[in-house]
Amino acid sequence: MAFDEMRFADGGIRPPYAEVARWLQGVTSAQLERRRAEAELFYRRGGVTFAVYGDAQGEERIIPYDIIPRILSGVEWARLKTGLEQRIRTLNHYLADIYGPREILKAGIVPEDLVWQNPAYRPEMAGLAVPHGIHIHIAGIDIVRVDGDDFYVLEDNARTPSGVSYMLGGREISIRLMPELYAAHRVAPIENYPNELLATLQSTAPRNANKDPIAVLLTPGQYNSAYYEHSFLADKMGIELVEGSDLFVRDSVVFMRTTEGPKRVDIIYRRLDDAFIDPLVFDPGSMLGVPGLFAAYAAGNVTLANAVGTGAVDDKVVYSYVPDMVRFYLGEEPILKNVPTWRCRQKDDLAYVLDHLSELVVKEVHGSGGYGMLVGPHATGADIEEFRQRLLAAPANYIAQPTLSLSTCPAFVDQGIAPRHVDLRPFVLTGADGIRIVPGGLTRVALRQGSLVVNSSQGGGTKDTWVIEDPEMPEARA
């Protein structure tokens, strides 16, 4: 049975949710439905939409928003925050290492082919000193909870993690539509995230940058599924939102075209993938990037956030080695656990997975968005047989994990108030002056009954996440 974050096993209310439980007793379904409609209208008026790649109609959708907040106590958040800081330090060490001395490969801790054969590994970065030694400036670490005390890392997102606009939008909705519930708690603020992001970016400016470093946000353009977030963040940070055609490189320095003439750019928060950033180095057919940008980067004249090649840690097999990386680089035991993972590239693991397909979740090593995966307990016999053939044909392309019973939180759905499975994506910022994490993050919720898939492209929605000052804690119950 899934761990219920609101209720004890005997039905009693856990202390962090005491005010939420009282509030829910005082509102009707009609009132909740009205507030849900108002939340959707807020998103629609603000243009808060996303597109599903592969959708033949190309329809822009409103991400479903559940108005009942998810609550984390201060003690829970403190433990989680410490673990996130440890993990992001480790991942930055790993990237600096595989593009530098490769000590972890020499030690035999990570197999060499996981680096050399990883399509996200960029050999152009080998030996290149990135500004301030930071590769991952913005990370989204997906966290799940399967029991009362332990948080597990489900996935590391180190390329261009998205979802911040939904985190901030959800908080605004909470304050507007549930002021009485919000006022009943001491909720840690997240509204300063854009300022924290800007400070992080500016702290990583090249050493020869402008006295007041100039940052821009580079977007693929309005047809990108996350374009709303790009424009939202640029506006909140007070920086220019640019496309590749707005920038040019001269003498290995990046400039932005403005009505007042060229203006040097020091930091580029880029929201497009490695392959598209510079047609002279990567995809020659790219019309989205800036010719010469990589040369300016290699010369140390501009900071790219995140660095080129950070996707090498997003690999789901590499993920399985992160606990070993923590011990190797930091000499510490991991604070946050990994989900147990079978590497189908290994003979014994593959044999186990093939014998237990109906019990496991099987994922593509480089997959994302909830696509290309098998959830064994919910799969048909035909689905299982199809994945069996995929595994036999290309076992190295897959990993498998147990079917976790993700924790649940109350959600307002068509059937009324019911528990639904959730995960959490905190956003971790790493600058030259340290690590910043706003308290909470984006809670994603599987709104379909019985579903464990929280991705918006697969019918999931979002919740506001409140980190609150700890209430008086009575003796814990099972």
From TrEMBL:
- Classification via InterPro entries: ATP-dep_Glu-Cys_Ligase-2 (IPR051680), CP_ATPgrasp_2 (IPR025841), UCP005522 (IPR016450)
Every Circularly permuted ATP-grasp type domain range: 69-446
Give a single Pfam family match.
CP_ATPgrasp_2
**Compositionally biased, Acidic residues: which spans?**
467-478
Q: Where is this region: Disordered?
A: 459-478
Protein origin, superkingdom = Bacteria
PANTHER family xrefs: BLR5612 PROTEIN, SLL1039 PROTEIN
This one is known as Putative circularly permuted ATP-grasp superfamily protein
